[in-house]
Amino acid sequence: MQETKSFEPNTKEFDNLLKHAIAPRPICFASTMDKEGNVNLSPFSFFNMMGQNPPICVFSPLRKMRDGSTKHTLENVWEHPECVINIVNYDMVQQQSLASVEYEKGVNEFIKAGFTPIASEIVQPPRVAESPFQMECKVREVISISDEPGAANIVIAEVVKMHVQEQYLDENNDVHPQDLDLVARLGGDWYCRVTPETLFEVEKPIRSIGIGIDLMPEDVKFSKFLTGNHLGQLGNVEALPATELIENFKTQLASRLDINKFKPAEVRHQVAAKLLDQGDVQSAWFWLLMDI
């Protein structure tokens, strides 16, 4: 068990660590409009999807830390409860950052950051042409937590229409994450990038009820060669392999190699760990349960 150190809210250390802890955070690149028709474009990393029926996104333009004043985006959605949430990928990340500069009210960040505005179909604020996903939204509610510096203003936005750049859609109108090159915010000045090298799949446990780690044999549960991730994979099976299947596996194995060298349980655990890293859960269980 690793030692921990504790931190209380409302300190500089806590605020900094919180942004590192809750990460990566997707970026809501929100275009809004005031009642006079002036357009604003600004990114927010306190953002996520919160529902599907209806489709709801939530983002939070915090009050400014220095004086508790409100941001132009918040003032705009109070005056004109519509926005477009434009998703940010790597090709536009530096321009997105430039748009976060605190320009004077009335300054159009589309122009300052060099983005191309295109007309929305249902709402009035324009979309960002460079964004791979552009979601027109009606603001259903704004929940202001307080008027203190750094306080949240939770904008609840219903997506009424979504636009996707065709280059990312396949013949089934699906997208592949390795093609999107999306980015997200971390703590401090740090971002991260979704690349093919960083992607991996975790099977959703929706097709069966896994046995869980608690029902595993003790030597497996407390193996020094199996990580928590390995145990999670093993615990997602609906039942342990039947004895007959294990014996068949052992017989086939013995026909190909000398299985006596795998007699120590720790050797079989090491083999199982490698199989789990390759996603072969069934074979890993055979190795773990095989009696030599």
From TrEMBL:
<keyword id="KW-0288">FMN</keyword>
<protein>
    <submittedName>
        <fullName>Flavin reductase family protein</fullName>
    </submittedName>
</protein>
<dbReference type="InterPro" id="IPR002563">
    <property type="entry name" value="Flavin_Rdtase-like_dom"/>
</dbReference>
<keyword id="KW-0285">Flavoprotein</keyword>
<dbReference type="InterPro" id="IPR012349">
    <property type="entry name" value="Split_barrel_FMN-bd"/>
</dbReference>
<dbReference type="GO" id="GO:0010181">
    <property type="term" value="F:FMN binding"/>
</dbReference>
<comment type="similarity">
    <text>Belongs to the flavoredoxin family.</text>
</comment>
<dbReference type="Pfam" id="PF01613">
    <property type="entry name" value="Flavin_Reduct"/>
</dbReference>
<dbReference type="GO" id="GO:0016646">
    <property type="term" value="F:oxidoreductase activity, acting on the CH-NH group of donors, NAD or NADP as acceptor"/>
</dbReference>
<feature type="domain" description="Flavin reductase like">
    <location>
        <begin position="22"/>
        <end position="170"/>
    </location>
</feature>
